[in-house]
Design a protein that fits this description.
The protein is 21% helix and 35% strand. By secondary structure, it is of the alpha+beta class. The chain folds into two domains: 203 residues, no CATH class; 140 residues, Jelly Rolls (Sandwich). Helix 3 packs parallel to helix 5. It starts with 9 loop residues before the first strand and ends in an 11-residue tail after the last strand.
Length: 379
Amino acid sequence: MISGQNAAALEFCYDIPRLLLLFEGLGDNCDFGVIQRAVGIEPFGLFRFTTCKPADVAALLRTRFQCLGEPDDLWLDEVGPRREYWVKSRHSSFEAHTDRYAGEDVSEVVRSALIEKTRFLKSRLVRDLSRGRRLCLWRGAADPAAIQAIAAELQTYAPTLLLWVKVADAAQVPGSVERVSAGLLHGYVSRYGDYDGGPRPPIEEWIRVCANAYRLWRGADPPQAPIENLISRAMATHTCTWFADRLVAVRVLDEPAPAGGPLFEHRLGTSEPTLVYGTQLPIGTGGHFAFSVWIRIPAGYRGVRISAVLRGYSSIAQWSADPKSYAHWQRIWVTANLPADARSIFCEITAEGAVGDAFHSASWCLERGNRPLGYGYAF
């Protein structure tokens, strides 16, 4: 069915995890932290899952975060029905998730750990800013004067750029970036993330923003890395087997895919969780593997889940489709560690939807490593 796919064994692709590790989010919420998680990285960052007003960010930068994280500064507030502890500052609007909960964790133990964590993270941030090792990022509405103040304070550490990510209007293209001044860039996305049941942040647009900001920052293309797509290699040697559930109809569409090769339509014939499509291929030995595939969900899709699976092995990390993001290509992936004696692997898409629901997949990729690189991304 898919013999027409490009079968180059070794290619170069953008190293998306490495690219995003070069950025430091400064606020105003979790969007950029979610984007980093979506590409398989979980860096420590003082502001990664934090909210703080831009004027306070500028003030914290001005004082080298002197008061933040001191014992008389941080306190815990119970938030939401799960009573999550939020850590908050008495001297600024800084507040952040802790993933610790009243009734499960002792508050003073949590607070003491957060004091140490905040001290470490602010010291590391000051060091990194002083070395000019990060391109800083602010997401959200703000007074332009406050953004200019943040950009000015960053310049006191090193020649560091600030990227202000805003919602595009009719004059801007989502994913584009423009230089506003020597220390400030504006980047544009179609929308911010919705954390009340709406769609997640537009991940692929954010990555284009970061790639274009990197070009303006470094005067070069984003970092690349060699990638060996084991699925393409197995197809070239006719050593992979493709299969689908009997209740799922699969056909090839005559249109281009993100990284070339065929584009599939998958139409569900059941509302139960089901295998949609998959391939089995040989591997020389076990180890860490990352399986990724690009998904496009048409408007009107009623499903609740589309996931990548390495059958038979517990996932180390994964990123599933956003079922409320319509008509755009999005990448899903999963990683797992196979035992050394493994000699074959099953790469599959599973879904839970309604009878008659259809979605598209393309650019299947299996690579060795503990996180996916950037197969299928083009800037």
